[in-house]
Write a structure and sequence with these properties.
mainly alpha
């Protein structure tokens, strides 16, 4: 089991590095395939435990919508569709956490998430136009709720798996924040490396926690 887990993680890391290199080289088709393959590997990892639990199944369903979002975001014209897919993914992550750990929030986790939500929305606001002024704040609110719940899970009982849930949620928020800054505020140096590495790290932490609970 440990060898299988290690092999999965090595495969995810290899595919992630390969996808980033293709994105940097400008190979759109190759990048799309490698990007999807990396997320598919994470999905398979989340489902690889011998006895898949209810939480594992719900995490896998969330990861499937992340995969759909990955594919949509390769092309700029499908950006709103990608946001929609990731919005559903976060709602599914929230459902998975609520069903497994309950829905009681820790106040400091809520305060942190709301401060970050307001800060990010304010930072990006002038760069948004049209329907994005509605879609992006709604998306930011949903991911903030997911982060608040994940942090609450970790703060209520500090175990390795619960900390991985919190870290996965935080990395997801960081990745999305970097994506927003790069897309709507100012281009970031090494944006692909920063955005994709934090994103796939987030999914891997969430997938690992999902398969263990």
């Amino acid at each position: 089991m440990l060898a299988s887990k290690r092999n999965f993680l090595l495969l995810i890391a290899f595919l992630g590095v390969f996808a980033i290199s293709l994105e940097l080289s400008g190979s759109v088709t190759g990048y799309a395939i490698a990007k999807a393959s990396t997320t598919i590997a994470i999905i398979l990892y989340a489902a690889s435990n011998r006895g898949i639990s209810r939480m594992s199944a719900q995490v896998v369903s969330a990861l499937v919508f992340c995969l759909l979002g990955d594919i949509a975001l390769v092309w700029d014209e499908f950006f709103l569709l990608g946001i929609g897919f990731f919005l559903v993914a976060h709602l599914l992550f929230i459902r998975a956490l609520r069903n497994r750990f309950g829905s009681r929030f820790v106040p400091i986790a809520v305060l942190f998430s709301m401060v970050v939500l307001i800060g990010i929305t304010t930072l990006l606001w002038n760069g948004l136009n049209g329907v994005l002024k509605i879609a992006v704040p709604i998306y930011a609110l949903v991911i903030s709720i997911m982060v608040a719940l994940a942090l609450s899970v970790a703060l209520k009982r500090r175990t390795t798996m619960r900390l991985q849930i919190a870290l996965g949620a935080l990395l997801f928020m960081i990745s999305d924040t970097l994506l927003g800054i790069d897309g709507f505020l100012t281009p970031l140096p090494f944006s692909s490396i920063l955005i994709l590495s934090t994103y796939w790290a987030a999914l891997t932490f969430l997938a690992n926690a999902g398969r263990e609970f």
